[in-house]
Amino acid sequence: MSNVAVTAVERVLDIFEAFDKVQKPLSLTDLAEMTGIPKSSCHAIVGTLTARGYLYSLTRPRALYPTRRFFDLARSIHEKDPFVERVMPMLERLRDASRETVILGKRQGDAVIYLQVVESPHSIRYSAKPGEFKPLHSSAIGKALLGSLKEAELRAQMSGRALPAITGATLTDQEALIADILESRRRGYFLTRGENVPDVWAVSAFLSVHSETLAVAVAGPRHRMEANVTEHAQLLLATCGFIARQWTKA
């Protein structure tokens, strides 16, 4: 794909993300300023989106806003997801049992992408959105996915890799991170203690489904998680085992 095509796609996404950020109608000038898109280019993109039914215009104030078309299209696509929708009931049961936020993710390049997030019912909770990217070395899901590798492959992938400090608790020493991952694998589950988000602990495990390696995590504030890590780990491992068995039967 050419750089021009990539830029065009990025600009369309920037426009929708601008609406999500302010959650109100925006004028063409507002959109151009918020996204950094030249006004002439922004006008052309907006014109196409309006003609295709993804935006509608208001006369007072003179502004634009997305229609439901993008939402309905995304929902229709998401409902046919080959994996996420099938495991949602199990993720929800895990959330209900742990009463903490449950996350499903997989590796994408050198990062973790969240595929689904089922948030805790508590008012103070870990919050995230599907589609967010997280570092491999500091997130619970990232650690689990790294832990799915054989030791030689893990060491090869870690060799020379930068491990930036996301928080003050992030493991930035390569040998310390490898040792933590190998010990976690022997234990059966992986743990982060404020390494990706301050004061948030998470327990995670990986599973393989149709040659895809995924990971599930239970995450919440330290004051609730610390005393319940073992219990949450048992619930998590039972859930991952159940999901894997369901796919084996399918």
From TrEMBL:
Classification lineage: Bacteria, Pseudomonadati, Pseudomonadota, Betaproteobacteria, Burkholderiales
Keywords assigned: DNA-binding, Transcription, Transcription regulation
SUPFAM superfamilies registered for this protein in UniProt: GAF domain-like (SSF55781), Winged helix' DNA-binding domain (SSF46785)
An individual GO BP term: negative regulation of DNA-templated transcription
Record domain HTH iclR-type: where: 6-75
InterPro entries xref list: GAF-like_dom_sf (IPR029016), HTH_MetabolicPath_Reg (IPR050707), Tscrpt_reg_IclR_C (IPR014757), Tscrpt_reg_IclR_N (IPR005471), WH-like_DNA-bd_sf (IPR036388), WH_DNA-bd_sf (IPR036390)
Superkingdom assignment: Bacteria
Presence of keyword Transcription regulation: yes
Gene Ontology molecular function, alphabetical: DNA binding; DNA-binding transcription factor activity
Name of the protein in its database record: IclR family transcriptional regulator
Signal peptide limits: none
Domain IclR-ED: 69-250
Pfam family, one: IclR_C
